[in-house]
Amino acid sequence: MPTSYKATRILTWLIAVVIGLCTLGIPTGYFLSSYQFVAGNLEAEAEINSRIITEIINANPTMWEYETTRLNEYLSRRPRRSYAEIRRVYNFKGDLVVESVDKMAPPVMSRSLELFDSGVAVGRIEISRSLRPLFMESVWLLLMIAPIGLGIFIILRVLPIRMLQRSEKALRESEETYRTLIDTSNDAIFVVSSDTDRIFHINRRAEELLGLPATEILNKSLKNVLKLGGAGRNPDETVSKDSEIGEINPGELSLIRPDGREVIAEVSISVSEMRGKKITQCIMREITERKEAEHRNLELQEKLDRAQRMEALGLLAGGVAHDLNNTLGPLEGYPELMLLKLPKDSPMRKQVMRIGAAAQEAADVIQDLLTLARRGRYDMEPTDLNQVVEAYLDSPGYLKLSSEHPGITVEVKLSRDIRPILGSSAHLAKVIMNLVVNGFDAVGEEGIITIRTEPRSGAKPPCNCENVRPGEYVALRVQDTGVGIDPRDIDKIFEPYFSKKKMGRSGSGLGLSVVYGIVKDHKGCHDVVSKKGKGTEFLIYFPVTTVLEPTASKTAHDYHGQEEVLIVDDSEEQRELAKEIISSFGYKVATSRNGQEALTHLRNHSVNLVVLDMIMEPDFDGLDTYREILKIHPEQKAVIASGFSPTERVAEMQRLGAGEYVKKPFTREAIGKAIRSELDRQRFTAVHSGSA
Amino acid sequence: MSCKFQKLPVCHLLAVLLMLGAYSSSECIAQTVLKIGGTGAALGAMSKIAEAFHKLHPDIEVKILPSLGSSGGIKAVTAGALQIAFSSRQLKSEELAAGLIELEYARTPFVFVTRNPVGVAGVTSEGVVQMFSGAIPAWPNGQRIRPIIRPDEETDTHIAKAISAGLAKTLDSLQKVPGMVVALTDQDCSEAIGAVSGTLAFTSLSQVLTWERKCEVLSFNGIVPSVANLSNSTYPFYRSFYLLRKAEAGESAGLFVDFIRSPQARKILEETGNQPLVKTLAEN
Asked: What SS3 class is residue A217?
């Protein structure tokens, strides 16, 4: 039964009784007081009249009872405002002597007094008055008061109860508000009696935080309820009975829930006074996720810093590679031309071949640098990672490495269930090579290196790398039983030139950095699991591709032609080298030293294709030149050649219609393939033929 | 002390009388007491008649009781408390049925009076209305007019109301005026007239003449209220007096009634402002 209902009923009865008593009491009181007044009044009148009649008796003691005129006159005299009365005078025998009678109705109240003659009773006067008027007045008073009483009852009944209901509603709403605020708080709240150290109130979040029902929390001390996991003090030890009112030492706690999960909570303790007793309010906010996020942010920041360092190094490497490429171009190209011209029995062929091989090695280092700088150009195509692994295992580099480490067993476990990935075989081979070389170096004399490929799919990304989406992946796992990596170094191993081992195949500490760059460029991710003294496993994940078949490659002799080609390059060595290489395919070659000269040439001549160096004069590079060429020959075909990795300007140029991008220093096959491919493009051919 | 000396002879006299009474009651014929009483207006004249009657009949002591009023007298004589009553009203049928014998023995002029000379000798029928109503608040000598009225059922009131409707209405209204002097009996009226200056009251000439105190009788419409004017019907307003007795009232009562018819009694009545109405035995 609601409190308000009981209070309302009690109040209603109370008011009804009080109003009823007042309503009945006032007329009753009026009647009683008036009755007393009438009685007194009658007695007074009887007294007065008896005195008058006594005078008459004294004046005529023997015949007084016959003085009816005078007696009548006296008896008939009434007060101006009087009730109806009957006044009678009796002689000593009780016979009526005289009377003055007013018409009146019962009930009647009478008072009588004896009449004396010199002390001897000779008669009696009796005055009667009807109480009907008084009774009727009382009834009228009751009738008048009753509606007033009823009105007062209604007012007293309605107003206080309405106020009571309002105050109860306000109290209930206030209580609900505070209860809701507390219960829906994201903070766990424990209210502890400072006297008993017992918890006497908690909210829902407190149960969730501790993983305990309220029954196992209430009436217990915080010490018994909180299972501390790591650092932090139990609030019980922080607060005592003598603690001052106010906030005390907020801090953090590590709590172990019954399910074993560790949660971190930020604790705020305040001591206050409630109803004269000290209470301790312990508020715990779970910050586990925040802590984890902070940790992740820290890791991300470190990765960002590392990426920025890699980017800076890449820029440096890219710049160096461009300059070296220009230098290495003739060193790589001329030996090939010289070998074409030298007789097969010429003793110079061996030296020329060594020059070419050295130049190739230097080009590989530069390529590593470009890869590191992620400026390398990949010929991405659907690739079977197993084939890449197998090709590497058949490569001379691996055979040489394996022969140099006879105590190391290489186990290969390739899954036939993996799907193709979109990648560059050459670069993927470089990843495998670097990881295997790294494994050999880690193992040393004896040990096992395991190379695995396996499918990996799932809703979650296969590793903790950022920007990796859930989906199907192909995992490349290279595991060794080597010395392992110091945990302090594990985050630095992908940085360039961070190496604690002797120089490898890719040389001078760039191996894992190259792996890092290639994996990134393949939209893959990596993970490293290492235990000091036990070995290391590199896990590389590549997303599978939906492109079905790898494109067939052409052989060198397919690239010949007789079309006219214009080479535009600001480097004379590169220009001459390119002229000789392209001419060797049968093309008619012209050269220009820069863009403006090329435009002049093209205004007077038309060529089938332009080989455009991308980086030339700062204010008129390959893109600017091509835009102007298109004004002269809107469908001019072009191939882009540059010592830098493809940039946005290269992409823009290709959007305008230019063909393949060839990285300098280019091989004879690379440039031949690019030129032939562009010239063979059907659309341009048709259009070009049409225009010709 | 002076009182003591003054009362001493009276005491001796009373003692002697008691002794004589005792002797006579034992040795002589018992004295007959005739109790008479009634309206106060007739008391004065009746006292003188009783005195004369006693001289004529010494064996009959006439005891005149204080004023009982006409109704009281009738009741008393009906109850046998009186042998003779005198009334100023006629008997009602039920009173006659009780066996009473009624005899109108005299009439006395109804008069308007004032205590002392107020500058006027008489009143008029209109003037008396104005005076009682307060329209004329003061006498010509400047004295305030203070009316005295009688109870509504009194014979004098009936006579006054019969003078004019205006006066009747005025008297009715005066009955309700608070503080108005209402004289219950003829004696009270006489007392009030003597006590209040500037009085204007109405009473009977017999009452005025037999009263110890003097007062001024006012002419009415220029006619002096006298027995002569009443007898010759010049003055129209009068009050009748009746003798009432039972048939079995006794010999002494009959003797007294007979005495009322005597020339001696008639003379007393005329002297006390009454017009004798009963004829003498000789006239009968």
From this structure: coil
A483 three-class SS: coil
A67 shares contact with chain B (CB less than 8 Å): yes
pTM greater than 0.90 (yes/no): no
pLDDT tens digit sequence for A292-338:
888 888 888 877 887 787 677 767 777 777 777 777 777 877 887 78
H helices of A538-584, in order, are 572-583
pLDDT at A617 over 90: no
What is the distance between the alpha carbons of residues A530 and A535, in angstroms, rounded to a whole number? 6
Q: Which two tokens stand for residue A310?
A: 């890699």
Task: Find the CB nearest B69 among A59, A62, A70.
Answer: A70
- Contact flag A66-B79 (C-beta cutoff 8 Å): yes
- Residue A46 in this model has a pLDDT that exceeds 60: yes
Peptide bond into B109 cis (omega under 30): no
- Is ipTM > 0.90 here? no
B22: distance to nearest CA of chain A, Å? 23
Express each pLDDT in B113-165 by its tens digit. 998 888 899 999 999 999 999 999 999 999 999 999 998 888 899 999 999 99
Nearest CA-CA partner of A691 in A633, A624, A637? A633
